[in-house]
Please model this.
Amino acid sequence: RMQRLHVAAGLSAGVPVDATPEQFNYLANVLRYEEGTEVLLFNGRDGEWKASVTFPSRKKIRLDVSEQTRPQPAPLDLQFLFAPLKVGRMDYLLQKAVEMGAGVLQPVMTQHVQGKITNLDRLQANALEAAEQCGILDIPDVKPPVKLKDLLESWSPERHIIYCDEDSDTQNPVPKLLAIGESRLAVLVGPEGGFSDDERNMLRALPYVTAIPLGPRILRADTAAVAALAVVQATIGDWR
Ligand code: SAM
Model:
């Protein structure tokens, strides 16, 4: 499997791209690539391109771009709304959301949130690394945190929010999802401490929100994220 790398530069045949110092270290010292080894490059705009590694000097790698291997697809439309978790768990949560096809990652501050967003750049880099690994050509967009109340007040109702609620009456989410039908989608998962009753009432009162169960057990928030995104993608998502 060819290594996939994100580059900031534009991509076109015959226009070489300089590897960043981090990429140099990874390709030369970690992967020990030699002259001519091929990689795949993407920048979120020009699709995916094959490039070969060249060493203009011992300390530099230049990537000679050759041919486009995949065109730039339409942006991933699914949004993932999540209450921040403690650092390590949040990295994992974001990575899973990117792997499961979320294009927008929106941290939501709720009453019982236990995590906080201290370094948005690090989360964005983490999401980009997940994109490199899982083969998407979009750049996942990690947004600055907003309060749940503010998010809902400014929400455009043509995007339906599917919120994971362990207190739902039934256990099977599929019928409730199918009832939503055609719509642009967002998935919302609560914090380790769950949503508050006020938050639940606020969410349940909105016509563009559907509470779904994810089985009879209490899932960790990151488990719930993967379970919810998988069932949404498999029933009414675009699963791209
Ligand atoms: N409120 C519980 C508590 O305090 O132990 C659990 C919260 S759970 C760890 C975090 C989030 O995962 C919940 O807010 C919900 O969004 C989701 N979740 C966990 N289990 C779920 C289930 N069985 N059905 C639907 N959502 C679930």
